[in-house]
Amino acid sequence: MLRATLKSLLSRKLRLVLSGLAVVLGVMFVSGAFVTTDTLGRTFDNLFAEGYSQVDVAVMAKPKVAVSEMEGEQILTPLPASLVDRVAKVPGVEKATGVISDDGARVIGSDGKVVTSYGPPRIGMNWVGTDDLMEMRQGRGPAKDNEIAVNEAVAKAAGIQVGDRVGVLTQLPRQTFTLVGVWGYTNERDSIGGVQEVAFTTPQAQRSMLGQPGMFTQITVGVDQDQDPSHVRDQIAAQLGTGYDVKTGKQLAADSSAQFKDALGFFNNILLGFAGVALFVGTFLILNTFSIIVAQRTRELALMRALGGSRRQMIGSVLVEALVIGFIAAVLGLAAGVGVGALLVTLFGSMSGGLDPAPVGVPLAAILSSLIVGIVVTVVAAVLPAVRASRISPIAAMQDVSTPDRPLTRVTVTGAVIGAAGAAMLGVGLYGTNSLWLILGGVLVTFIGVALLTPLISKPVVAGLGRLFSWSVPGRLGRLNSGRNPRRTAITAAALMVGIALVTGVTVVIDSAKQSLAAQAENTVKAEIVIGGDQNGPRPPVFDEAVLGKAAAIPGVRAVAGIWNEQVLIDGERSYVTATDDLAKLADAYGSPALPTLKPDQIAVSTDQATEHGWATGRVVKVQMPRGDEHSYTIVATYDEDKVPGSIMLPLAATKEFGLTQPIFGFVRLADGATIDQVLPQVKALVADSPEVNATDRSSFINQQVGNFDTVITMVQVLLGLAILIAVLGVINTLALSVLERTRELGLLRAVGLGRAQTMRMVTVEAVVISVFGALLGVVVGSGLGAAVVQALEGEGITDLVLPWGQMGLYLGLAAIVGVLAAVLPSIKAARLNVLAAIAHD
Amino acid sequence: MIGTRAQEPVAARADDVWKVYGSEEARVVALRGVSASFARGKFTAIMGPSGSGKSTLMHCLAGLDTVTRGTVHIGGTQVTGLSDKALTRLRRDRVGFIFQQFNLLPTLTAAENIRLPLDIAGRKPDPQWWDTVVGTVGLGDRLNHRPSQLSGGQQQRVACARALMSRPDVIFADEPTGNLDSKAGAEILSFLRSSVMEHGQTIVMVTHDPVAASYTDRVVFLADGAIVSELENPTPESVLETMKAGEVLV
Prior knowledge:
Chain B: Keywords: ATP-binding, Nucleotide-binding, Transport. The complex is a heterodimer. The mean pLDDT of chain A is 85. In chain A, strands 4, 5, 6, 7, 8, 9, 10 and 11 form an 8-stranded mixed beta sheet that branches. Chain A is built from 23 helices and 23 strands. Chain A is 56% helix and 15% strand. Chain A is of the alpha+beta class. In chain A, a hairpin with a 6-residue loop joins strand 19 (620-624) and strand 20 (631-639). Chain A has 4 domains: 1-55 and 252-404, no CATH class; 56-251, no CATH class; 414-522 and 707-842, no CATH class; 544-686, no CATH class. By secondary structure, chain B is α/β, with parallel strands linked by helices. Chain B has a single domain (41-58, 82-245), classed as 3-Layer(aba) Sandwich (Rossmann fold), CATH 3.40.50.300. In chain B, the strands form 2 sheets. Chain B has a 6-stranded mixed beta sheet, with helices on both faces. Chain B has a 4-stranded antiparallel beta sheet with strand order 2-1-4-5, covered by helices on one side. In chain B, a hairpin with a 6-residue loop joins strand 1 (10-21) and strand 2 (28-39). Chain B is globular. Residues 1-6 of chain B have low confidence and may be disordered. The chains are: A alpha+beta, B alpha/beta.
C-alpha cells in the first residue's frame, strides 16, 4: 500500500511541486524569522561582549525612571565626581574613571545636515584616552573645551577631517568645535556595531551631555591583576550602599543584550504572525490540491478498494502523501528560510552602518517549528480529502466516473454557522473583553465561515463577473469553465480573499484613524506655524529653547509656546508627561480654552487622567523626573484632553530634570492680520541652526503627524504580499489542473477551429474571473472587518469611517493582473497541446 | 456556397503520403506511400486492422497530424506545410469532425455545441440550414439540454450536427458508432448517409465494422500502412469477403 502511494506521488510531480510550494513559502517565513532573530541576538551578544570587554566593573546610579528598550530611552542618572574617589579607595580597585557616555551627540556633516545613524546610538562622551580596542587613526584626543575627536564612522559619515570646524548638537544648541582627532578600532573597524562617538573634554562633555558640571554617567573600574571582578564588585556595592547598580563588564554585556533580545522577540512574533497568515492561506491551496488529486485518482482508489484495501488504508494513503509533501516542503522551506534570514541579517548590518553580523546559525527552534508547522499544516489540510477518498465505492472503478455536482446545502449551512460564530467571537472581542486573541480568532473563524459560503456566493457573482467577458467565444467559454466547479473556484478565490481582506481591513482601520486624527487636529490646532522635526529614532529632534522667545518677538506673532516630553513617575506610576514654558500661552497658541500659567509647583491634568486616577484640583501628587529628586505638585486645573497637546502638563522648571531639556515642538499663533507668508520665513531662519527641525505651516504639520500611518500600511502590504503570492500559486495550480482535466475538451476545441490565441484567452478569462472574485470577496469582507474594528474604536477617538475606495479599486485591478499572470503558464500549456494526443487523451 | 463546392470534384486527396514515427531503431512506419482521392459528395469508409494506419491516414488528411513525406489537399488547398494558424482556420471553416467519444463541451447546451465552430469563427448560422440540420438530427426539445442530460446516441447526433453546421468540404468521422449500441449506431449511420445523399456532404469515416462500412459508397482497405484494395457500393457481406480475401481482418 505504501509503495503504491509513493509511486503515485512520484508520478504527479507537478502537483507535488505546486502544492508543496505554498508550504515552502510559509515555512520559509517561519524559519527565516527564527534564523534572523537568533543571528541578530548572537550579533548583539558579541557586540556588547566586546563593547564591555574593557570594563571590569562599572558603577551607575539606579535610574530614577526605569524604561526598557521597547518603551523608549533610558535616561541615566548622573553621579557626582566625589563618588569616583570613593570607588577608587575600595580595596582591589586599581583605577576608577569617571565616564560620561550618553546618546544624543549629533554631528552636523559637511553638507550641513545632521548625520543619521538608523538605529545605533550617537554617543557623546568624555575623552579618557584610548583603550586596548581603540586605535588613534589621526591626530589626538581633545585637550581644550573647544576640541573634539570622533570615531572613524562619524568622520566618514559626516565627511569631516582633522582640522575642520564641526557643528555638534547636544543638550546644548549647536556648538562648533575643532576636530583634532579620529580614532578607529582593532581589525580596521571604524566603530563597534555602527555606534557613532563624539569625544569632548570632560568638562565640556558634562555641559553638553548632562547640563551639569562635575557629574558623570558612570564610573568604570579596572581591578588589580590578582582580583576577581565579581569580588571587587561586591566590595564596591557594599561600600556604596543602595542607590547604585554595580555590575561586572560581563553582566552589563548580558543585560544590554537581553534588552535587545526582548525587542527582537517582538519582531520575531510579528514575523511569525504573518507567517501564520501565509500558512493559513497555504492550507486552502493544499486542501484544494488534495481534493483534486483525490477526484482524479477516484478510479485508482476504487480499484484499490475493489482489490481489498480498507477505508483506513485509503485515508492512510492520502495522508502519507501529505506527510511526504509536508516533510519535503518543510525541509526546503527551512533551507530557504535560512537564506532569507542570512539576507535580512546582512541587510540589517549594512543599514545600521557597520554592524558585524554573527555567522548565520540555525537554532533548534527554527528546525522544530519548520518541520512541525510544515507537516501539520499539510496533513491537516489533507484530512478532508482523505476522508472523501475513503468514501469512494469499489464500484467506481468499473464505471465511467463523472463527479456529479454535490449539493451545496451542507457546506453552506456549516459556513453560515461558522461565520456567525466568528462574527460573535469578533463582537465579544471588540466590545466585550477587548482580548486580542479573541479578535484574531474571530477573524480567522470568520474567514473559514466565509470560505465555506463562497461556493454558494460564487455562482451568481462569477456569472456576473463573467458577463464582462462574454462578448467573445473564448471569454464565454472561460466564464463557463470558471463556474464549472464552484467548490474549487471558491477555495481558490477564498485563499486570495484572506490576504486581500486583511490588507483592506488594516487599510480601513488605519485610514479611518488617520482621517479622524487629522480632522481632530484640524479642529483643535489653531497655531498657524509649528516648529518641530520628524522623529525617526528613540530620540525626537529638539531645538534651542531661545527660539521660542525670538519667535514671539517677530512682528505679527500673537503667542508662542513650546512643549517638552518625558516619562516620569507620578505617585510611583510611570506616565507620559508634557511640559510647556507657559500653559496660558500654550492655550492661546494651540487654540485651547484659557488655562492658567503654571507656577513651578503646579500641574494641570486632563479630565480623562483625573477620572482615571481619582484626582481633583487641589490634590498634591509626587513626581519623580529622570534626574533630580522627587517634587510635589498641586493640581490646579483640569482640561479637555482633545484640546491640549498632552494629558499631564508640567511647568517649565520641571524640564531641567527631563532627559531632553530642549523643546520638541513649538506652536506659533499669528496675530489678526498677519500672514503665514510673512512670518514663516522668519521662523524658519530661527531654526536654521538645528538641521533636524523645521518650521512648517499647520497642514504640513498635521500631515507629518499622520504620515507614519502610511508607513504602517506599506509594511502590512509588503508582509501580506507573501500570503497573496501563495494565493496566486493557488490560482496557477487550479488552472493547471483544470487544463490537465480538460485536455480532451481542449483538443476538441482546437480541432473544431479554436486558435491558439483564443485558447489562451479562454484560460486567461477563467483565471481573471477567479482572481477578481477572490479580490472582490476580500475587499468586501475586509471592509466589513475594518468597519467593525473602527466602530469598536469610536471611544478611542476614531470617529470617521474611511473606506479606501481607491485602494480597493487598486486591489481589484491588481487581482485582474494577477489572474492574467497566473494564466500565463497554464494557457501556454493549453495552447501547445497536441490536438491529436489531446483528443485521444483519457 | 454549394455552388463553389462543385467546381472541385475531389474533396480530399493524399499523394504518396508517408508517415514515420520515431527514429533509428524505434522507427515505426505508419503509412508507406498512400495515395487516395475522396470524391465530393461521396461517403467513403477507411477500413483495416489495428495498426494498419487507417486512423493515421485520416488524421493526416484532416490536418490534425503532419505527414513525413508527400502531400495532402483539402479541396483546392494544400494542407501540407500550412502554419498552425492556417491549419486552425482550415479545421474551423472547411473540415468537420465526429469522434468516437462524442467530445461535446459539457458546459454548453446541445444547441450551443452545434453552433460552436460558427461562434468561434464569428459567423451566424444560415437559419434555413440550421433548421434543416437540427430538424434532421431530430433532437427537438432536447436542444437546450446539456450533454450530461443526453443519451450517447443523442450526444453523437449533436456531434454530427456540429460537424454539418459549417458545411465543410469534408467531414472526418473516427469510429462514430464505436461507443454506441447497434440501434443508436444505425441511426447515426443513416443520418450520415442521408446528409451525403440529400445535401451532397462529403464524409470520410474510419471504422472496423463491416455493417457500418456498408452504409458508404466506397470502402478503402489498409494494411501495414498501404492501400491493399477498394470496394464500390459495399454490402456487409462483400466487405467481409474482401477482408477475408485480403487477410485484412480487423
